[in-house]
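Form 7-S
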Amino acid sequence: MRYSIPRLVIAATQSGSGKTTIATGLLSALREQGIAVQSFKVGPDYIDPGYHAMASGRPAHNLDSWLVPEQVLPKLFAKAMDGSDIAVIEGVMGLYDGGREGISSTASIAKLLKAPVVLVLDVKSMGASAAAIAQGFRDYDHEVDFAGVILNRLGSATHEEMIRGAMKDAGIRVLGALHRDDSLKMPERHLGLVPAAENEREREAIESMGTAVAKSLDIEAILHLACLAPELEAEPFDLGQVAEHSCRIGIARDEAFSFYYPASLVVLEHEGAVLVPFSPLHDAELPDVDGLFLGGGFPEMFAAKLQENAAMRASIKKA
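Output:
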């Protein structure tokens, strides 16, 4: 079956270049325009999708050829696009970084989905060298549809003009330029970004990202680029007949437990589970359930609060 799905990949030269900020801001800006935008994240990541979901208003999905056979990903992607107008796919690490021979890299997923790639470049303390780096990324693998760059952390209008000139000479399209703004920096700690569920100012931060991206990126050109993506061929995704409800599973959802793959929960429900959310942090007792699913997160950051909730601990022990 052939699917016509507008789509693009937001990649980077390396981790810390600002691709999550820009991808999240783009989701927010598109949603503000009334566009139904569906986000994806390359790799087994839970934190970035949390910000994506807040920005787009839709659960974010992962694309990972470590966990899922490569041939299955296109049909999972197409299924997740039901009811959406455009897909924004955030890469992982640098464009070509992955396992051996590039397995599960952003580049490999982009080629698999025939999606154009926009490269985020952190150009702080850099001039024309930015064009040399972009040219290297463009020419490294000609099977990647390298569509252009977004300049991030520019220092001044003169800095921007200099790099835009170098990009033009190299034949590389600039699709946006963001100047340094510490207010857009996302909170981090030892294992990366702070999860959205823990970030008290996430809504305000996402709105700021959306405003900045709307002003600094050529949204019209990016939409046009996404619409130029070729038709995607994929088998329809079908889980078969829905099972009768057979059990109730309590699913822990709060600041301490927030890491879940939406696709996993869909399959659980399809197999007959009724998912009942509860909070090990804030609730006094378990709901009426037959089993528990405590997803990932950073419960160690809330150890004191979890310990203080003696009623919940007693309820779980009793169950």
